[in-house]
């Protein structure tokens, strides 16, 4: 590769990555997937490794916050072991700890503070500059997550009153508000939601992409001084004062106590206010204040002897289940919610709790009218733990999900091996936002500017009720400007131009955007290749649909049901009238590839997989994701895996890149 070519590619890659960073962080309008972003960054790193003389300080590989990719699994030893705390569960156990400390120490003081439910993290500073972040791991060594810690707002990057060296320990957590926002986004994108804030925080901190960490907005409290050089600090409270002066966020509202009665009162006070906190705690920690006295008490191989963690007992109440309400999520998932007589849990009034799905209801055998037991999971989330069968009404009956969606009355679906019921009606009002996000997404109609920020506004203001309304927005330009849906005139015209441009997209992209259950971009491409367009596809029987390779019975049924729906046909007529491309361009193709089915596996040198796929499709071939008896050729590159093995088993012709190029030349 010529030097001029290297410089040119470096320039292009850096420019493209910076543009995607801006789209992701500042505009909240990402254009590419994480996988595609990773490919760009990997290529940039490869070039910079081969030509280190061309690395610049402003290269995305050298900057934090959006472009940084941490190294997975890098293990770092702790300077000071990050031990667990011994759990205690009763007033008597706390009293025994206090009495034992008083007997061994000279007038000890105790600090009582909240025990945050999160993930422990050690932060290292050198000369006042943030240097490194390490997870707890096994207590003796942990995983480095420095780049991720840099994008947590509570992690101070530079200390004001800088010691020579400082190591502190804290807890990374997620506020309830940010946890709810993250799960909402996961559901909107059709991804798995998190069980609780702690799991979400722990999983987020270990992400390889700091963009995800920044997006989910983690928080951190510091609760211990691990090691310091260049300044004398004698106690836990002194350490907190030093940290506060340096802008470090510490556990707030801690209490310094001298007697067991004072300690227990402080524990009770934390217990009384935990329901009002915007983060989860799983107990209260009692620590000896003096560092010298901590040294005197020492530690076991697992726990320090100078601290204990008191765990609050679960607050559980019995109440009467009055009804089970059903809600429809943005992806069509039906969630049952128990509505019961209000009870007080941890100081708050509770009258609703999720029942998850039909399997959960069946497992507990929850019935309307039952006396149920309710508690708070993670100190905040109400849960149903069981049923008092002895108090069950004689006329009670098992609860079963209805056949129809509670919002649009469309028939609910429960696929084999799935736990959830779903409404698969693409026009269900409860799913409109998610449906539009899919329609405007990169793999579908690829309408830049129509995304997570603008779509909710368009729905709320009544501009869009179906996907066909997207192509009526130009007629309402003045109203869009008055409502500032997209901002000023320039931004509005840019989005309207993108909508107009999307009319030229292939019918495969349109089919992807229609949101038919089971029809993603690959299936849409296969269906359009087979039937030539939406006109013939709309007439196809289930048997004809299943004749298309990789289209199974469930997908065929959903496709047929979509085209049998009068509302869907009306929307398609409106899209056709708006000028969208409904039929594929018919080409007479004479090549060795036409009509043949290909599967690509392994790393290719002269083509990317996308490039090779495009070439095959342009010449009338079919590209499949899996090997079957209907596959004609498998193109295998380096590190080809199970697809290659299956091709050998089935006796399918295997091509290398040279064979593929010869076929193209024919």
Description:
By secondary structure, the protein is of the alpha+beta class. It folds into five domains: 3-54, Helix Hairpins (Orthogonal Bundle), CATH 1.10.287; 77-310, 2-Layer Sandwich (D-amino Acid Aminotransferase, Chain A, domain 1), CATH 3.30.470.30; 316-391, Nucleic acid-binding proteins (OB fold (Dihydrolipoamide Acetyltransferase, E2P)); 429-577, 5' to 3' exonuclease, C-terminal subdomain (DNA polymerase, domain 1, Orthogonal Bundle); 597-665, 3-Layer(aba) Sandwich (Rossmann fold), CATH 3.40.50.10190. It has 24 helices and 22 strands. The strands form six sheets. It has a five-stranded mixed β-sheet with strand order 2-11-10-3-9. A five-stranded antiparallel β-sheet has the order 14-13-12-15-16, with no helix packed on it. Helix 1 (3-25) runs antiparallel to helix 2 (34-50) and helix 16 (507-513) crosses helix 17 (521-531). The longest helix is centred in the N-terminal third of the chain and has 23 residues, at 3-25. Mean pLDDT is 87; it is low at 24-28 and 64-70.
Set down the secondary structure blueprint.
Layout: H1 3-25, H2 34-50, E1 75-77, E2 86-88, H3 91-104, E3 110-116, E4 119-126, E5 129-135, E6 141-143, H4 146-150, E7 165-173, H5 176-188, H6 197-205, H7 210-216, E8 219-229, H8 236-245, E9 255-257, H9 260-273, E10 281-288, H10 291-297, E11 307-310, E12 316-328, E13 334-345, E14 348-354, H11 358-364, E15 371-377, E16 381-387, E17 412-413, E18 422-423, H12 432-440, H13 454-460, H14 477-483, H15 489-502, H16 507-513, H17 521-531, H18 534-539, H19 542-546, H20 553-564, H21 566-577, E19 597-601, H22 609-618, E20 622-624, E21 633-636, H23 642-650, E22 653-655, H24 657-665
Parallel strand pairs: 2-11, 19-20, 19-21, 21-22
Antiparallel strand pairs: 1-6, 3-9, 3-10, 4-5, 4-7, 7-8, 10-11, 12-13, 12-15, 13-14, 15-16, 17-18
């Amino acid at each position: 590769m010529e030097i001029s070519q290297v410089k040119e590619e470096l320039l292009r890659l850096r420019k493209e990555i910076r543009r995607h960073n801006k789209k992701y962080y500042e505009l909240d309008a990402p254009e590419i997937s994480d996988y595609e972003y990773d490919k760009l960054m990997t290529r940039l790193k490869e070039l910079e490794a081969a030509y280190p003389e061309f690395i610049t300080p402003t290269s995305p590989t050298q900057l934090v916050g959006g472009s940084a990719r941490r190294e997975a699994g890098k293990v770092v030893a702790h300077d000071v072991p990050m031990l667990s705390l011994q759990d205690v569960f009763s007033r008597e156990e706390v009293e025994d700890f206090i009495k034992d400390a008083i007997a061994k120490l000279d007038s000890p003081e105790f600090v009582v503070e909240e025990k945050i439910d999160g993930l422990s993290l050690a932060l290292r500073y050198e000369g006042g500059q943030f240097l490194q972040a390490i997870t707890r791991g096994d207590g003796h060594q942990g995983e480095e997550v420095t780049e991720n810690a840099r994008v947590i707002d509570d992690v101070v990057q530079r200390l004001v009153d800088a010691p020579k060296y400082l190591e502190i320990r804290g807890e990374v957590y997620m506020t309830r508000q940010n946890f709810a926002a993250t799960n909402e986004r996961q559901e909107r994108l059709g991804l798995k939601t998190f069980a609780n804030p702690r799991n979400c925080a722990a999983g987020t901190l270990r992400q390889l992409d700091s963009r995800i960490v920044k997006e989910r907005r983690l928080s951190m409290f510091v609760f211990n001084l691990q090691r310091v050089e260049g300044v004398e600090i004698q106690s836990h409270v002194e350490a907190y004062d030093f940290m506060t002066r340096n802008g470090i966020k510490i556990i707030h509202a801690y209490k310094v106590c001298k007697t067991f009665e004072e300690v227990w009162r402080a524990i009770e006070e934390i217990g009384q206010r935990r329901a009002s906190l915007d983060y989860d705690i799983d107990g209260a920690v009692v620590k000896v204040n003096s560092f010298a006295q901590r040294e005197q008490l020492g530690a076991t191989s697992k726990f320090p002897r100078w601290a204990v963690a008191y765990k609050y007992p679960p607050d559980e109440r019995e109440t009467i289940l009055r009804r089970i309400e059903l809600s429809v999520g943005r992806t069509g998932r039906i969630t049952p919610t128990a509505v019961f007589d209000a009870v007080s849990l941890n100081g708050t009034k509770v009258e609703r709790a999720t029942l998850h799905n039909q399997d959960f209801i069946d497992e507990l055998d929850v019935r309307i009218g039952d006396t149920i037991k309710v508690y708070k999971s993670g100190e905040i989330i109400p849960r149903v733990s069981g049923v008092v069968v002895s108090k069950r009404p004689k006329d009670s009956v098992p609860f079963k999900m209805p056949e129809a969606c509670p919002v649009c009355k469309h028939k609910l679906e429960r696929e084999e091996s799935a736990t959830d019921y779903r409404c698969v009606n693409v026009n269900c009002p409860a799913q409109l936002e998610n449906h539009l996000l899919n329609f405007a997404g990169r793999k579908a109609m690829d309408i830049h500017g129509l995304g997570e920020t603008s779509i909710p506004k368009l729905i709320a203001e009544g501009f869009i009720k179906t996907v066909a309304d997207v192509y009526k927005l130009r007629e309402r330009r003045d109203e869009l400007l008055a409502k500032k849906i997209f901002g000023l005139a320039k931004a509005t015209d840019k989005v309207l131009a993108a909508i107009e441009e999307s009319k030229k997209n292939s019918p495969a992209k349109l089919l992807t955007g229609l949101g038919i259950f089971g029809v993603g971009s690959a299936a849409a491409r296969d269906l359009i290749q087979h039937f030539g367009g939406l006109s013939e596809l709309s007439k196809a029987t289930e048997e004809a649909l299943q004749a298309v390779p990789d289209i199974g019975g469930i997908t065929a049924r959903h496709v047929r049901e979509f085209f049998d729906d009068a509302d869907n046909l009306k929307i398609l007529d409106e899209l056709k009238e708006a000028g969208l491309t409904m039929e594929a361009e018919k080409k007479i193709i004479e090549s060795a590839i036409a009509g043949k089915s290909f599967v690509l596996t392994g790393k290719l040198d002269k083509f990317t997989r996308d490039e090779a796929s495009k070439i095959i499709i342009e010449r009338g071939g079919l590209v499949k994701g899996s090997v079957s008896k209907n596959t004609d050729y498998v193109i295998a590159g380096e590190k080809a895996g199970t697809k290659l093995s299956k091709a050998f088993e089935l006796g399918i012709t295997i091509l290398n890149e040279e064979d593929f190029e010869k076929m193209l030349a024919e």
